[in-house]
Design a protein that fits this description.
The complex is a heterodimer. Chain A is an alpha+beta fold. Chain A contains 7 helices and 5 strands. In chain B, helix 3 packs across helix 4, helix 3 crosses helix 10 and helix 4 packs across helix 5. Chain B contains 11 helices and 4 strands; from the N terminus they run αααααββααααββαα. Classes of the chains: A alpha+beta, B alpha/beta. Chain B: Belongs to the nitrile hydratase subunit alpha family.
Chain lengths: 220, 193
Amino acid sequence: MPAIADLGGTDGWGPVHPPDPAEKVFDEAWEGRAFALAVLGMGRISGQNLDAFRYALGRLDPHAYFEEGYYGRWLNAVELMFVESGIIAPDAVDARARNLSGEQVEEPPAPELSKPDYAATGPGSLRQVDGSPRFAVGDRVRAGEVPPAPTKLPEYVSGHVGVVEHVQPAHLLPDTHAVFRGENPQHVYTVRFDSRDLYGAAAEPFALTIELFDSYLEPA
Amino acid sequence: MTDTRPPVALRTEALEQILTERGLVDPAVMDKFIATYETSVGPLNGAKVVAKAWTDPEYRARLLADGTAAIKELGFSGPQGEHIVVVENTASTHNVVVCTLCSCYPWPVLGLPPSWYKDPAYRARVVREPRTVLREMGLELDESVEIVVRDSSSEVRWLVLPERPAGTEDLSEEDLTGLVTRDAMVGVAKVGA
């Protein structure tokens, strides 16, 4: 079953929303607070691990992911990270929120800390790797099966053949980094697909490129 | 049961209070961070990059060869800008950017993404029927134009160098900067003269 965040190519969403030139960066003040809490807060767990944050987003239930707005989704994901790290209790946010609205409920004590024992080897996500890239520009490659989450291989390119358009700088691998199990840096390729190879002969003709990690690919 | 939780705005305030009490976030630092993205990191940065590329052929060549370095020349770098690749839209090729898995976007040059970019309908559909999606967004492309959709699935960030509109030959770099829109730098619009 595709992960909740893996939306590429899926049906049933209705029309897109045309751009609104008057749109503000944050519609409401809480959205800015949630943005800052997510970005600054996640760095207090075990380094600024954006992959862990994205993995937390992808594990939210449909209500928490879709129904509370974009920054509601961010708030819910960073709360999940704090709960899983033992920094706050699962009910701590709700209890405090009820007290803020005038109820009087007991707040749970802070649980036992269970932060991942993990530190990145450097800032950011780009890394040097030994050995030259397995594929070169122009090579035909097939995207493999979608691995168990976390992964950055979307369902809609899985099993399809494309052509390497660029060899990008090596990145740490989200699949292991997101769960604090190592950086395992890999070569990353921009792979170009023909829409008719992805969706069949009746598809709108266009090209699509996506960055794929070395272990997602096999020669084709 | 999540829909019976207290309202999200209240939960945001609750989490901020708890983390502040624990010394894990500082509301004053949060204020500055929010203000930065409300006022100084936004699409005006990208517009300056584009206008310079339109008026300085050597800069344009550097920008297309190494976007991150050329953008840094103008002082723009930071989170979500580790490796920026710039692609050019022309009369025959039209690039459009998406992040199907989340909302990856080149913050240093465009700021935070607008709602349409983060919307599930855009994320789902632009990789399946981009011509239809662009039409819904107000951009009608000739059938002869090749569309290239860029799905930002790693830390590579894409910036579109839009086509310079005809009739702007006499405009200064500053005037050109005022023409460039965020939507054109993502590829869902063209720059009008």
